[in-house]
Write a structure and sequence with these properties.
- Its EC number is 2.8.2.-.
- This protein has 95 residues and is an all-alpha fold.
- Helices cover 35% and strands 0% of the residues.
- It has one domain.
- The protein is elongated and about 75 Å long.
């Protein structure tokens, strides 16, 4: 019986160490968004992404306000016809 309790304890310790290692890979910084309970609340999902947490004015103001219809529109593309795909590579732009 004692041998079985040691195995269970060893399994729990190994599971805990595995969880700590995975958390370090997923969230290496000191400020982890996964550990905040507000990140999983439904009110956080509906919050304005351009408003800071301390209610200061946003440093980034979007210039283009596209509607959902503009962003989700479908375009008919015929690769066998006259339609053309262009890949433009601009050097030293980080992408």
């Amino acid at each position: 019986m004692e041998d079985r309790s040691h195995k269970v304890l060893l399994a729990l310790v190994m599971l805990f160490l595995f969880a700590v290692i995975v958390l370090q890979y997923v969230c290496p910084g000191t400020e982890c968004q996964l550990l905040r309970l507000r990140a999983f609340s439904p009110s956080a999902a509906a919050a304005d992404p351009y408003r800071a947490e301390d209610e200061t004015p946003a440093r980034f103001v979007p210039r283009f306000n596209f509607s959902a219809g503009d962003l989700l529109r479908r375009v008919d593309f015929n690769i066998k016809g006259d339609d053309l795909i262009v890949f433009l590579h601009i050097q030293k732009t980080g992408g």
